[in-house]
């Protein structure tokens, strides 16, 4: 699926006997279901929406109450097109004035795109100081951009998804040894994916902490 963090082919490639699995079409629907389940559980583990690490290219407009301070926290964005502020308050479309990046404000962290990380804060430019603060009106900050973590899933998420899906798959295969018939496969697709393995949660912990502290 579009928001899955790896593919069945890439997951099977992690196995020492990958060829035998990749050559059988019976196994792919099973692995596809496990990958989707792992992807969504990863999203929930870090407290984000489904598909958070695999954003679309569609820009969205999001609103925030003004912080009344030098810095404005926002959701994670891959990129930002426009930041507008209701300087006198109001929520009508005409209430907002576009602010200029690198004149009125900067995005943080500074090297987010180079590091494959999201933008999660806006800060006034202190040397120009054209603006006193992010006006503390309701819904006074409007951000247009592409929400999400990065243009593609980070390596740690991809590896976590592969490892979790393979663990479930191999665990299920042990039960199939006595079953034999491929018809049994479909009945077990969602038997294992109830929660992430403790080792996978440990792998994701640094990312979870980053997002919770961002």
Verbal overview:
The chain has helices at 8-12, 18-22, 27-45, 112-115, 155-176, 185-188, 198-213, and strands at residues 60-64, 71-85, 97-99, 105-108, 119-124, 141-147. With 214 residues, it is of the alpha+beta class. It folds into two domains: 8-52 and 153-213, no CATH class; 60-147, no CATH class. Strands 1, 2, 3, 4, 5 and 6 form a six-stranded antiparallel beta sheet that branches. Mean pLDDT is 87; it is low at 177-190.
Keyword list:
single chain, 214 residues, alpha+beta, 2 domains, 6-stranded antiparallel β-sheet, 7 helices, elongated
Quick structural gist:
The protein is of the alpha+beta class and 214 residues long.
Average pLDDT for all residues: 87
What is the end-to-end distance?
29 Å
Number of helices: 7
Amount of beta strand: 15-25%
State the total count of DSSP E strands.
6
Quaternary organisation of the protein chains: single chain
Give helix and strand order, one letter per element, not per position. HHHEEEEHEEHHH
> What percentage of residues falls in helices of 4 or more residues?
25-40%
Based on Cα principal axes, name the global outline. elongated
Tell me the Rg in angstroms: 22 Å
Described by strand count, sense and barrel closure, the largest sheet is: 6 strands, antiparallel
Count of the separate structural domains: 2
Structural class, from secondary structure content? alpha+beta
Could you name the ranges where pLDDT drops below 50 across 5 or more consecutive residues? 177-190
